[in-house]
């Protein structure tokens, strides 16, 4: 993530971009973005504003009246950006085992989806 954070300006921005790219139809408010990206709300508001200005995300209101942001599917560089962020730093098998191993005894771990650069897969782990 270090390379990406240098390239895109901050690790928070990269986390948020990935959040939107991997959840294209989900509406997130700033509190949910902060929680999911593990960043402080002030930084999230700043980065959301920048992503909104670039047109990567757009305002969205749900039927329930929830205001938030969602991925702009009309963003002109959407496909190249998705490909870049998925392929630039794939999680290495040892790193996956290390992270999952903290959950307890694992008998079987299957890796698919974004972990093998196939975002259309129905299952990731």
Question: What does the model show?
Answer:
The chain has 125 residues and is mainly α. Helices cover 47% and strands 8% of the residues. It has helices at 2-8, 11-22, 30-37, 41-53, 78-87, 93-101, and strands at 57-61, 67-71. A two-stranded antiparallel sheet has the order 1-2. The chain is globular and about 45 Å long. The relative contact order is 0.13. The mean pLDDT is 81.
Question: TL;DR?
Answer:
With 125 residues, the protein is mainly alpha-helical.
> Helicity level, as a percent range?
40-55%
> What is the C-alpha radius of gyration, as a whole number of Å?
16 Å
Compute the average pLDDT: 81
> SSE string, helix = H, strand = E?
HHHHEEHH
Spans of at least 5 consecutive residues whose pLDDT stays below 50 are none
Distance between the termini: 21 Å
- The 3D shape can be described as globular
């Amino acid at each position: 993530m270090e390379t990406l954070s240098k390239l895109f300006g901050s690790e928070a921005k990269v986390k948020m971009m990935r959040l939107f790219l991997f959840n294209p139809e989900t509406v997130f408010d700033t509190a949910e973005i902060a929680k999911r990206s593990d960043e402080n709300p002030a930084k999230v508001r700043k980065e959301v504003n920048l992503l909104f200005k670039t047109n990567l995300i757009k305002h969205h209101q749900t039927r329930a009246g929830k205001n938030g942001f969602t991925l702009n599917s009309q963003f002109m560089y959407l496909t190249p950006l998705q490909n870049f962020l998925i392929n630039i730093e794939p999680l290495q098998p040892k790193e996956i085992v290390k992270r999952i191993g903290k959950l307890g005894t694992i008998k079987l771990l299957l890796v698919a989806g974004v972990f093998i650069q196939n975002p259309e897969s129905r299952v990731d782990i």
